[in-house]
Amino acid sequence: MERIVRLNPECIPCLLGNQLERYPKDIDNSKKIAYMQAILRVIADASDSMSAPMIMREITKIQRQMFGNEMDYSEIKRHFNQLMLENEMDVQKEIDASEDELKLAIQFAIIGNFIDFGAMKSVNEQKLEEFLHSAREISVNEEEYISLRKDILDAKKITYLTDNCGEIVMDKLLIRVIQKMNPDANLTVLVRGEQVLNDATLEDAVQVGLTEMADVRGNGSDIAGTCIEELSEEARKIIYDSDVILAKGQGNFETMQMCGLNVYYIFMCKCEMFARKFQVPRFTGMLLSDKNC
Fold first, then answer.
1. What is the side-by-side strand order in the sheet with 186-191?
2. What is the rounded CA–CA span in Å between residue 60 and residue 152?
3. Helix, strand, coil proportions of the chain in percent (round to 5)?
4. Other beta carbons within 10 Å of 135
5. CA distance 31 to 26
6. pTM for this structure?
7. Residue 10 and residue 149: Cα distance in Å, rounded?
8. What is the pLDDT of residues 185-197, one digit of tens each?
9. 191-249 pLDDT, tens per residue?
10. Could you give the C-alpha distances from 257 to 158, 207, 228, 285, 287, in angstroms and in order?
11. Are 213 and 175 in contact (CB under 8 A)?
């Protein structure tokens, strides 16, 4: 089996740069230096098979050891969940009126992926609103879309892997379309098992009403992605038993790419590295299957 390299060299300066604002402001320079040196050791010791989200998990452990709990995203998550809930009814009406409900639901799901405090330091709400009003302009690879549509219709077991807060509202609308297309399929939604950045957990799924319409479970992991070997036994079984998997977000792509499963990745290229990788402008929407990674 070919060895998989998941770490991109461009992620290393980004991982370091993001930490310059992650330590408490009231600590002295000697502790700041010790923190950055500890992070450098983590990165230096990392295997190139480790994705950036896996390395970030190790960095977070250092934050906890040196400063206590890491940044609390609870208020940010509640805010963006509520913000997207306020848009839910209008988006649902657009989807219902569309000639191709699945495609438009995917386009809105891609827009939801803009809400990411891991790839970006902040989320511009005005830009998010602009994206929501131009959903039909979001690119969707036609060949991949036709393949995904067929796989959804043929599937007996479907797994949907969520990514961020707020975004989970758009996931909810896409899941509703999938359930409408194939009501006999067993559909399971996996959220993060523990708090990590602004990623969606069971608490977020409850807030946005996703648990009222789908079987939602935590994946048992605190990584901002889906490292299959790090998941709970239950989550691994759900994934391996699936006929088709929809994986939202850059983190899920980084951690799962080339896994050999029938995965379709849905995300927005929010960082320059991803834009260069796929040779597209920043904030371009992506739909691609694992077999084409």
1. 215-218, 186-191, 157-161, 244-248, 263-268, 285-289
2. 37
3. 55, 10, 35
4. 21
5. 10
6. 0.92
7. 34
8. 999 999 999 998 8
9. 999 998 899 999 999 999 999 999 999 999 999 999 999 999 999 999 999 999 999 99
10. 18, 30, 11, 17, 13
11. yes
